[in-house]
Specification:
Elements lengths: L1 H38 L5 E2 L5 E6 L11 E10 L4 E4 L5 E4 L5 H6 L8 E6 L19 E10 L2
Antiparallel strand pairs: 1-2, 2-6, 3-4, 3-5, 3-7, 6-7
Length: about 150
């Protein structure tokens, strides 16, 4: 009985620590994004999840949803300006359910032909683990153009 209580106490403590760390990281990411917006004189819309969207051109074509398959041309940057990725010329096709949460949430703000930026906090990107070429807890900036809504 004592060991069960101890294990439960340890688990609850770890969960509370993870939650506190996530909240602290979200606040830090928001500061980084707010500074990026200010430094670059952007007009950005906060979505409520930590994501910010800059709409340069909303587009006039079809709309998409978080479950759509789309074709997007993009370039990904860190907030200090270093490029880490880009699509081939003419874009790349993918289901929005198979990409980072910041894209799944952000791309539907645009219609076909639309362009702008997604300012993505780490929790909606690659989080505390990062991925190849992207360090843990990285805020990511994507310049995107929604070329086509496929389905």
């Amino acid at each position: 009985m004592k060991s069960t209580f101890y294990i439960l106490a340890v688990c609850l403590t770890l969960f509370a620590c993870d939650k506190n760390n996530a909240e602290e990281q979200a606040a830090e990411d928001d500061t980084v994004i707010q500074n990026y917006i200010s430094d670059n004189n952007l007009i950005a819309e906060a979505t409520g999840s930590g994501l910010y969207v800059v709409i340069d051109n909303e587009g006039t074509g079809a709309s998409c949803s978080a479950t759509s398959t789309v074709k997007v041309e993009y370039t990904g940057y860190f907030t200090h300006g270093t490029q880490f990725d880009s699509s081939p010329s003419g874009g790349i096709e993918f289901p929005l359910q198979n990409v980072i949460l910041g894209w799944t949430e952000g791309i539907p703000y645009f219609k076909e032909g639309g362009s702008g930026k997604l300012l993505i906090p780490s929790a909606l990107a690659y989080g505390p683990n990062g991925t190849t070429g992207i360090p843990p807890n990285s805020v990511l900036i994507f310049e995107i153009e929604l070329i086509e809504v496929i389905e």
